[in-house]
Write a structure and sequence with these properties.
By secondary structure, this protein is α+β, with helices and mostly antiparallel strands. Helix content is 54%, strand content 12%. It has 16 helices and nine strands. The chain has a five-stranded mixed β-sheet with strand order 1-2-4-8-6, covered by helices on one side. A four-stranded antiparallel β-sheet has the order 3-9-5-7, with no helix packed on it. Strand 1 (53-57) and strand 2 form a beta hairpin. Helix 1 (2-26) runs antiparallel to helix 3 and helix 4 crosses helix 8. The longest helix has 25 residues, at 2-26.
Amino acid sequence: SLLQEIRPMFLFLLFTFLSKCVAQELADNPSPESLTQDPNHPVLPNHPYVVSTPWAEDGVTHQDVYKLGVKGQYANIPLRTDGYDHLSTFCYSSVPLSIYMFWSSASMKMDLPSNNYQVYIGPNVTSVSSLAQASESAWFYSQLPWRSKEFKLSPFEDVCIGVQTMEEYTITLQWKYVNYMMVVVTLSGMALFWMAPTLCRNTFFHYTTGISLGLLMSVVLLTYLAQRRFKQSLFSWVGVAYSFSVYLMTRTWFNIKEYMTEQYIHLLVGYVLVAGIISFAVVYRMGPPSNPRTINLIQWAMQAVSLVMVVMSSYHQPASLLLSLTMITWAAIPASLKSGVNTQIRKRFFKPQVKLLSEDEYNTQAHAETKKALEQLKNFCRSPDSKPWKTVTRLRSPGRFAEFIEGSPHLTEAEVMEYSHWDYNTDDEDGDNDIYTDDEEANEAASDDNLD
C-alpha cells in the first residue's frame, strides 16, 4: 500500500526533523565557533549592529564592507549627500555541512523604501566589485526585470552582496534553523512521487492541473495556438513571441504583490475568472487522457517534478540528492521482493503473540460460533434473497429443511446417538485403533497384499 511505500522515508525525515527541533531549542543561532572567522575582521555575536571595516583581499583593500555572521545582525547605511551612488558590500561566512541543518536557510533582507538601487552578488568582495565596475563601464548592461529586497543565501556557501544606491537603508541577516516552507516542499515532493500513479488517473486532479496551467501559462498557451494557426516555425517571429511570453509570465510572478493592491485587484480577479473558465472549457472538451502510454508519460513527468522539488527543497545538496536517489531506488525494487523481505522481517523480529486455548475454552467457543452460524443461516433462509423454492427443489429432505427454518435442531436424535456411539468406540487410549475412510482402507489393504 501507499503507507507501506512511504513509511521508511517518512520515518527517516521524522527522525531528522525531531533532531533539528531539539537542536533548535538548544541553540536558536549557530554557534560563533562554527562560523568561519577572519582574524582581520572579527564578528561580535552579541552585538547586533555591525560597522564597516577595511577588507583585504587579493592584495586589494576594499572599503564599506560589512560582515554579517549571526542571526539578527544588521548594518545601517546612511544617506549619501554627494548625489552619487555608492557601493556597500555585505558578506556572509558559511557554516560546515551537517545533516541536522537539512532544512536550514539564511537570507539578507533590505529595508529600502524605493526601487532606486542595483544589486551584485558574488562569492567574494572582489567579484562584487568587478560586477559593479562592469556595470558602469559597459555600453549595455541589462539586469533581470524583477526586483527583490530579500536575498536568499545558502548557509553552506560564502557569499557577498553588493548594494549600490545613494539612499539610506538597513540590511539584516535572517537565519532559520528549520525553514518550515522547505519542510513542506520536501514532504509534498515525496507525497507527489508516491501518489503519481494514482493522481495521473484521477479526473479531479486532471481538471485542477489543466486550470492551473491555464492560469499560470495563459500567454505561452496563446502563443502556441497562434503558432499552430499561422503554421510558423519556432525560429521565426514565434521564437520572439515565446521569449516575450516567458518574460511577462516571470515578471508577473515575481511582482505579484504589487498587483494584489487595491489598484489592480479587480483586474487580477477578472483575469483569474476569465482564464479559469476558458481553461475549464478546453479541458472539458479534450477530456481526461485514456491512452495508457499518455498516462505513463504524465506519471513520469509528475515524478520528475517531485524529484526536482525534493532536490531543490534543501541547501544541503548532497543529502537532498541522496534522498532523491533513495526514492528512485526504492520505487525500482519489485513489489514482490519488498513484500517478501517485509514478511521475513516481521516473522523474524516481530512474531505475533498467539494465545493458545484450553480444551474447555475451545469447546465453549466452538459451541457459541456454531450456534451463531446456525442462526445466521436460518435468518438468510427466511429472507427473500435465499430463493426458497429453488433451494427446496435441490434438497433430499425438504420437510427437514422446513423444520430447521421453523426452529427445530439441525441434528436428529438418531444422528446424535450415532455420533455418541462412534465417539465411544473410537476412544482408544493406546492409540492402536485408527479410523480410516473407505479410500484409506482400500489403500491399506493393497499395501498389505504387496507385502505378502
